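Revision sheet: structure tokens.
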Amino acid sequence: MKPSIPEIGTVIKLQGDVATVMLKGGESCKGCGQAKIGLCKAGSTNMMLTVKNHLGAKVGDSVTVGVDRGTKAKGYFLAFIIPLFSLIFGALLGHVLGKYFSMPSLEVAAGFATFFLISFFSLRRLKILDSSSSMAIKSVVSGSIFSEYIEADEFRGYSDCQNRL
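Predicted:
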């Protein structure tokens, strides 16, 4: 599931602050890498997903499900911030060591060396985070009391006109 496109599902079971949500594979599921290479049946079957329920959704509620905000922040930090700071730190360290050892342009080599070394470990950690990512209920679309047909305002106005005639 793409984290930028939340899916809509129905809560079918609650256990403490964790909910089991039944999702029907939708547009974001079809755009997933696993669906593109045929590892899952995108859009054709329902999927069960265990998610965090911080909003207190009840059984039967329609909810939107997406990647937890904390997981997104950790992912951005591991993918962008840590490698950037390692490049800057390595370049500064290389500059100081270059002056000490009288080796010009050591900052470039040291900057890229620390960048690649730290990026390797950072991306390994990102892969671990991806495999254990936390999904969460983002919002409750409708409660279980609205499972029946709800008439739109336009139809109510039309039916009121019909009743007066």
